[in-house]
Amino acid sequence: MKKKLKVLALFDAIRATKIDQDLSKEMKTEDWKTEANVLSALRTLGHTEEHLAIFDDLDLLRQKLATFQPDVIFNLADQFKNNRGFDQNIVSFLEMQGVPFTGCSATGLVLCKHKGISKKILHYHRIHVPNFVVIPRGQRILRPKQLKFPILVKPVKEEASYGISQASFVETDEQFKERAEFIHESHDADVIAEEYIEGRELYVGLMGNFRLKVFPLRELVFREVPPDEPKIATYRAKWDEEYRKRWGLRNKFAEGLEPALVTRIEETCRRIYRLLTIDGYARIDLRLTPKNEIYFIEANPNPILAEDEDFAQAAGKAGLPYPQLIDRIIRQGMNTLRD
Q1: Strand 6-12 and strand 48-54: pairing?
Q2: pLDDT value at position 338?
Q3: What is the pLDDT confidence band of residue 163, given thresholds at 50, 70 and 90?
Q4: Are 31 and 96 in contact (CB under 8 A)?
Q5: What is the fold, at CATH topology level, of the domain defined by 6-102?
Q6: pLDDT at 305 over 90
Q7: CA-CA distances (angstroms) from residue 140 to 163, 177, 195?
Q8: Fold of the CATH domain 130-195
Q9: How far apart are CA 138 and CA 328, in angstroms?
Q10: CA 259/CA 56 separation, integer angstroms
Q11: pTM here?
Q12: Residue 56's closest CA among 32, 80, 27?
């Protein structure tokens, strides 16, 4: 019998909270689906759980750690003061408290968050990445001659395709300048502009600290998108159900890949995970060209853990039903400090 644990589930909130905040209303909404799924799994597993949502006050977390004294923190907090850029800071704080927690360390989060840095590291290690340039705010917007159209222009640090729309796909210098200016101003963000890679959009789930398990490959399929239109995972392509229906967008298990190619993809993803110092669990987004070249697009440590999302679906197919997946994530988190 595995030991039952005291688990503190840590969430982020969009407004100020109290230490004993009643979140039952939120838990019934789509936005809190992951949190509700994780809490339900913790109860199924028989762990003693308490939860805390933080907005802008880390002192609440200090108080909770003192009163509840959890064995482990299940970290689902990926923003602070409504800013996703602070996810690594929350984790740095957890690291300093010395309490085991689930998911990725601060170093892995920092390296993966900056799409330019992660691509530079992987390119150095001879993993295919699209040609790209980073254009910081305040810098003159010029396309380097070696950067060929079509190009995707997006914020360098955003996640979940935030800031990516069909207008991110540019084919002229005028569009390039316009989109980069738009991101600089409306998102107050630096820009990464990278060559568009034609091919299949694959999502690869991995978990582990030492021995890595790679889950069956998922794919975003664009069924109704005309052949001459770009197939890109925009914000709406990921999160807007009506939009997804209209364009026949579906996430499903990837089919028709030769076993040797699947092995090559898995090995590439293991290398990426190691090189970017990811631990815990992650999803790696790739493009597979018609010539079967594997291009790294981005790495997502601590991907969405809702039961019906890609990561949990892939884990289920690999023989890890949802409660067992949550338990495995916890046990890994507990080993992190002893690794």
Answers
A1: parallel
A2: 38
A3: low
A4: no
A5: Rossmann fold (3.40.50)
A6: yes
A7: 20, 9, 19
A8: Dna Ligase; domain 1 (3.30.1490)
A9: 45
A10: 48
A11: 0.93
A12: 80
Tell me the C-alpha distance between 93 and 107, whole Å: 13
Q: Please state which CATH number belongs to domain 198-330.
A: 3.30.470.20
Residues of the chain with CATH 3.40.50: 6-102
Tell me how far apart the alpha carbons of residues 60 and 65 are, in angstroms, rounded to a whole number: 9
Rg (CA), the chain: 20
Q: CB of 6 within 8 A of CB of 70?
A: yes
- Round the average pLDDT of the chain to a whole number and report it: 92
Alpha-carbon distance 294 to 292, whole Å?
6
Q: How far is CA 108 from CA 279, 325, 327, in A?
A: 7, 21, 22
How many angstroms separate the CA atoms of 311 and 172, rounded?
A: 36
CATH 3.30.470.20 maps onto the chain at 198-330
- Give the C-alpha separation, 81 to 266, whole Å: 37
| CB of 51 closer than 8 Å to CB of 10 | yes
Mean pLDDT confidence for 86-90: 93
State the residue for tokens 């936005």.
Answer: 31
**Contacts of residue 103, Cβ cutoff 8 Å, sequence gap at least 6:** 75, 91, 280, 281, 301, 302, 329, 333
